[in-house]
Amino acid sequence: MRPPSKSLYSQTTVRETIITTDIQGISFWSSKLSNQCQVYEVYGWLSSSVNNDKGNARVFRLKDNTDSIRCVFWEMDRKLPTLFTDRRYRCIGKYICQTDSFHCLSVRPEIQLTENKIAKMIEVCDKVLQTEILMAPGRTEARNAPPQPMFTLYLCNEYAHKLIHD
């Protein structure tokens, strides 16, 4: 059996990762990675009341320092926790371009990170995305193939979390 690689490079693709970004970054990276499925991690404050929509859907707006976005949480197997406007939340989900909405898989109160630590995580992930996807060696405008980063974003998030917690 072959030992696991200790390199920062991985066989994992973007489809198996979570991209930590701000609200503006969600639409930017969605346009750059349009051929792949991305899951985003975003931090922000509740900027509207939670409303019911289409059965089990709960709709609210999340804002950060860059923008705000319409969020939808489907109460299928669990309820949306009670949200307060004065608290920061960590939302993980998928951006739907057609409706310009963020479909949340998870909404949790953020209790451990400061604004600087969140900004550092976003900065690290943005650098990895810019280096490995936008400026990948051998990529040309004529190619229509989706970008396949050598550096996995999962490792980017692991590195970012380690960086801010050490």
Relative strand content:
25-35%
**Count of DSSP H/I helices:** 3
Query: So what's the overall shape?
Result: globular
Q: Structural class of the helices, strands and pairings?
A: alpha+beta
Q: What average pLDDT do the residues reach?
A: 76
Number of beta-strand segments = 7
Q: What is the distance, rounded to the nearest whole angstrom, between the alpha carbons of the first and last residues?
A: 33 Å
The profile of the biggest β sheet is: 5 strands, mixed, barrel
- The percentage helix is 25-40%
Strand order of the largest sheet: 2-4-5-7-6
Strand-and-helix sequence, N→C?
Answer: EHEEEEEEHH
**Radius of gyration of CA atoms, rounded to a whole number:** 17 Å
Low-confidence region ranges: 1-15, 139-155
Can you walk through the features of this model?
The chain has a 5-stranded mixed β-barrel with strand order 2-4-5-7-6. The chain has helices at residues 23-32, 115-134, 153-165; strands at residues 18-20, 39-46, 51-53, 57-63, 68-74, 88-96, 101-109. The protein has 3 helices and 7 strands, in the order βαββββββαα. The chain is globular and about 45 Å long.
Please give the structural blueprint.
Elements: E1 18-20, H1 23-32, E2 39-46, E3 51-53, E4 57-63, E5 68-74, E6 88-96, E7 101-109, H2 115-134, H3 153-165
Parallel strand pairs: 1-2, 5-7
Antiparallel strand pairs: 2-4, 2-6, 3-4, 4-5, 6-7
Helix pairs in contact: 2-3
